[in-house]
């Protein structure tokens, strides 16, 4: 089985290392040797983290993926182009493809799946979500006989590290981000992580597999963590909660649509996700027959991601050797993605209010007017420091948003200090 590798960066170099170190074991597991036949790179003379025979390196990626002797193409360059064109070219020539490209799969996975079907090749992408954690294959295969209700989890290690440090040390967002960058958990430009783009792409992939429907990154409601303050984290901690950036994919009660969202949320400290520390990932899958399943482990990094790539590579090679294919994209359900406004959730709201009689009554009246009931409320401070802290019962996000807008116009409310959704305790 001849393998072409696109990219020799953090992940690609680890893929090469594992292919070399485990060549005998991999050959035994596949039933034939896996031979690295070429590596496409941007610059030939660049110093690399792994030894690669110079004759294997090329800057002509298209020529490499369309070579007649290539059986499998592994893509770890990331981004939309030229990755999309190269993957489609390989699939059209009957190659099988293993990719870790979450952004491309979330934006235009349909094109890749259609090319795989037309070329009669496999498209595997376990490494695109949650690094080394076996997650996509259980959704794609192990739970194919079940009905998934919800997928809830932490799928971005950078943001989890930042929020964990804010919770455990009281650090500000800026300080925690700088520490994450120093340790290599965050990029110099952390936008994709801290603004939720990375998690949104992964949520789209998870939702598509879980609910047998096409979901793109554009369908995902997305909020990042840049507005979370040390005060928000401390307030959550005082109430027995921790703040996490969650990816939530859930089937509606009537089963006709799904909601897919990424946003910060408070979860009880007793919830298993609350104990996910530093840059680790964890995902809950709730299915009708299987019940609750939890997948936990390293969600990023060269070696963990390469482990997932190699797992797919072995599966794809076995299929080619046997003359078979793995499962195709399953979109038979064709469920629509309902807007965030229709999503039912709960909120924790902190209001800076005037310190005078009747404030609570007027605030409660406004909540009731928008069909949002209050579960708990407490008043803190006096004078200029007076604050109401409210946790609502479940209501549509549209109703909660309308309530917050009305509160800002209320003369007794000086400011809406914070609004945070609450998950995981229902």
Folded structure, characterized:
The chain has 426 residues and is α/β, with parallel strands linked by helices. It folds into 3 domains: 151 residues, Rossmann fold (3-Layer(aba) Sandwich), CATH 3.40.50.720; 164 residues, Dihydrodipicolinate Reductase, domain 2; 82 residues, ACT domain (Alpha-Beta Plaits). It is 36% helix and 25% strand. The strands form 2 sheets. Strands 7, 8, 9, 10, 11, 12, 13, 14, 15, 16, 17 and 18 form a 12-stranded mixed beta sheet that branches. It has a 6-stranded parallel beta sheet with strand order 3-2-1-4-5-6, with helices on both faces. A hairpin with a 6-residue loop joins strand 15 and strand 16. Helix 4 packs parallel to helix 5 and helix 7 crosses helix 8. The N and C termini lie far apart (50 Å). 45% of the residues are buried. The mean pLDDT is 95. Keywords: Amino-acid biosynthesis, Metal-binding, Methionine biosynthesis, NAD, NADP, Oxidoreductase, Sodium, Threonine biosynthesis. Pathway: Amino-acid biosynthesis; L-threonine biosynthesis; L-threonine from L-aspartate: step 3/5; Amino-acid biosynthesis; L-methionine biosynthesis via de novo pathway; L-homoserine from L-aspartate: step 3/3. Belongs to the homoserine dehydrogenase family. Its cofactor is a metal cation. Catalyzes the conversion of L-aspartate-beta-semialdehyde (L-Asa) to L-homoserine (L-Hse), the third step in the biosynthesis of threonine and methionine from aspartate.
């Amino acid at each position: 089985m001849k393998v072409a590798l696109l990219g020799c960066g953090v992940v690609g170099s680890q893929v090469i290392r594992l292919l070399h170190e485990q060549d005998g074991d991999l050959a035994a597991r596949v039933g034939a040797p896996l031979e690295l036949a070429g590596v496409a790179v941007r610059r030939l003379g660049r110093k690399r983290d792994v030894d690669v025979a110079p004759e294997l390196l090329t800057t002509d990626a298209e020529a490499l993926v369309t070579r007649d002797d290539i059986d499998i193409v592994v893509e770890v360059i990331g981004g939309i182009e030229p990755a999309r064109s190269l993957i489609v070219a390989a699939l059209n020539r009957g190659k099988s493809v293993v990719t870790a490209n979450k952004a491309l799969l979330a934006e235009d996975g349909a094109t890749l799946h259609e090319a795989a079907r037309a070329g009669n090749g496999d498209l595997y992408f376990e490494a695109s979500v949650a690094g080394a954690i076996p997650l996509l294959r259980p959704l794609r295969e192990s739970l194919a006989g079940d009905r998934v209700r919800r997928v809830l989890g932490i799928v971005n290690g950078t943001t989890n590290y930042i929020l964990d440090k804010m919770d455990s040390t009281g650090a500000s967002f800026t300080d925690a981000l700088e520490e994450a960058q120093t340790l290599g958990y965050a990029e110099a430009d952390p936008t994709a992580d801290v603004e939720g783009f990375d998690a949104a792409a992964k949520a789209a992939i998870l939702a598509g597999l879980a609910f047998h429907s096409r979901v793109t990154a554009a369908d995902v409601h997305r909020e990042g963590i840049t507005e979370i303050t040390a005060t928000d984290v401390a307030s959550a901690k005082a109430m027995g909660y921790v703040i996490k950036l969650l990816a939530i994919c859930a089937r509606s009660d009537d089963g006709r649509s799904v909601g897919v969202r990424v946003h910060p949320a408070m979860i009880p400290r007793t919830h298993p996700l609350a104990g996910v520390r530093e840059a680790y990932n964890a995902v809950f899958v709730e299915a009708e027959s299987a019940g609750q399943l939890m997948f936990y482990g390293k969600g990023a990094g060269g070696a963990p991601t390469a482990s997932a790539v190699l797992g797919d590579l072995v599966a794809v090679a076995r299929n080619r050797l046997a003359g078979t294919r793995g499962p195709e994209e399953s979109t038979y359900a064709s469920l629509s993605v309902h807007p965030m406004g229709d999503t039912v959730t709960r909120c924790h709201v902190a209001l800076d209010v005037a310190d005078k009689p009747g404030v609570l009554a007027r605030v409660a009246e406004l909540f009731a007017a928008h069909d949002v009931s209050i579960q708990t409320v407490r008043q803190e401070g006096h004078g200029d420091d007076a604050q109401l802290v409210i946790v609502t019962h479940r209501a549509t996000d549209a109703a909660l948003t309308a309530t917050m807008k009305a509160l800002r116009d209320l003369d007794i409310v000086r400011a809406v200090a914070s609004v945070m959704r609450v998950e995981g305790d229902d």
